[in-house]
Amino acid sequence: MEKSRPPFWLIPNLLSIDAPLVALAWMWMLARALRVEYIPSASWWVLPTAIWCVYVLDRLIDNWTHPEVRDHSPRHRFHWRWRWPLLVASLVAGGVSMYQALYVLPRSVFSAGVVLMVLCGVYFFLAWFRSREVPYVKNFLAGMIFAMGVGIPVNAANASLLVTDLKDVLYALNNTGLKDALWNFGLMVLRTLVVIFYHCREVWVFGALCMMNITAIDLWERADSAETEETAQSHEATLTLGLIILAGGSLLFAAMHADEYSKPFFYSVMVAAAALQLINHFRERFSMNAQRVLADVALLVPLPIFLVA
C-alpha cells in the first residue's frame, strides 16, 4: 500500500492545483509591474478556481476521448479514477465562480471572461483532435488563454485599460436583432484582445512563456518515446531554440521598452525561460513525473525578483 501512494511532491500536479498557484503568483507580479495597487478580493480566488475547473475538464476530456493517455500519465489516471467526484467538484466550483463574476466582480471582468470562455471553447475543440505531432497551435492557444486569464483582473483594475462590456451586445439583441448583436460581440472580442495583448505586452510575453512550458512537457514526453536518438535530440534542440528566443526577447523588452516597474516582470520571464532550459539540459537525471513538476516550479523561480524589487 505504501508503494502505491504518490510522492508528496507530485500531489499538487495530480490535483491540478499547480497551475492555479502559478496564476496567482504571476497575477501578483503583473499587478506590481503595471502599478495596480488594488484588485478585487474575489479575483484572487475566482481566477485560480476557474483555472482549476478548466484543467480538470481538460484532463477528463482527454481520458474520455483518448484512453491511451492513462498508460503514461499519472495525472490522467488519477483524474479517471476520481472522475465523478472531480466532475461534480468542478461543476460546483465553476457555478460559484460564475456567480461571483456576475454579481461581485466588475462588469468589465465578466465581459472579458466571456471572451475567454469563447477561446476556451476553441481550445477544447482543438483538443478533441489529438495528434501524434507536437500540438504547437493548441499549446499557443492554451498559453495565451492562461496569460489572458491572469491579465484580465489586473487590466480591469487599471482605469486606463478598462475593457468593453456586454451592454452593447444585449441592447442589440433586445432591440435591433441577432445580426447586430453578433457584430457587437465580435467588436467586444476584438477590443478585449487589443486591450489585453496589444496595450499590455507583458501579458503576451508571459503567454509565450506559458506556451513554452506546455510545449516543453510535450517535447520531453516525445523525446522519451522517440525511436531514435536523433529524433530525441531534435525535440530538445527545438525547445532550446524557443527558450533562447523567448529569453532574448524578454531581455530586449526590458532594455528598450520597459520602465522601472515592468523591468522585473521581463527579467522574471527570462529567468523562468532559463530555468526551463536548465531542466531541459539535465532532464535525464529526473523521471518524467519530476520533469512535469519541475516545469511548473520553473515558473515560480522568478518570484523572489519581485519580493526584493
TrEMBL record:
Superkingdom: Bacteria
Keywords annotated in UniProt: Membrane, Transmembrane, Transmembrane helix
Keyword Cell inner membrane tagged: no
Keyword set includes S-adenosyl-L-methionine: no
Transmembrane residue ranges: 7-30, 42-61, 82-102, 108-128, 140-161, 181-200, 239-258, 264-282
Full protein name: Prenyltransferase
